[in-house]
Amino acid sequence: MATDTANGNGRHKAAIRRENEAIILQAAEELFAEFGLKGATMDRIAKRAGVPKANVHYYFSTKNDLYQRLIEDICDQWLQAAMVFDQETDPATALSGYISAKMDQSRARPHGSKVWANEIISGAQFTHDYIAGHVREWLEGRELVIRRWIAEGKMDPIEPRPLMFMIWAITQHFADFGRQIEILNDDKPLDDEAFESAKETVTRVILKGVGVA
Question: Is the C-alpha dihedral spanning 107, 110, 116, 119 positive or negative?
């Protein structure tokens, strides 16, 4: 009985930790997108999260630790969207699913995309090793899948890496340049119908470009 109680308390504490970390990370994501790494102070993050500054330091010793955790979490979510490459043998289905997932992520998490873009533009100081290791390994795995599709005659012979770069650029445009899109849309964000139409257009153009439309 005592062991069951201890396990229950441990699970409860872990759940509380996950919840508190999520609140802090959400606040940090918004502020890093708005003010950059230098301008988003731990004081500001604590106020936005609605927690004492000491709580922020309890979960993340330094602002750099918090920033590192956040940007890796953002990229990990993007990489998970490409699981469809491992689950589908049809390039049209896989690419369509990946494009759709990436655009949905841009819409749901625009601040995260902006934080990542700012990090790369500023020289990838905190993400260099992560990109050179984890992201490179992930990308090479997707390239092998695309080359297999080409060898099987399922799509045109194109270079996989520029294709992936193109997908990243256009899908993240809807977050990184969201304000520009709003201005050109009568100062309003795209509604559900317009966004789905945009996804359909992007998907059709890319699939046609690689010969799987």
Answer: positive
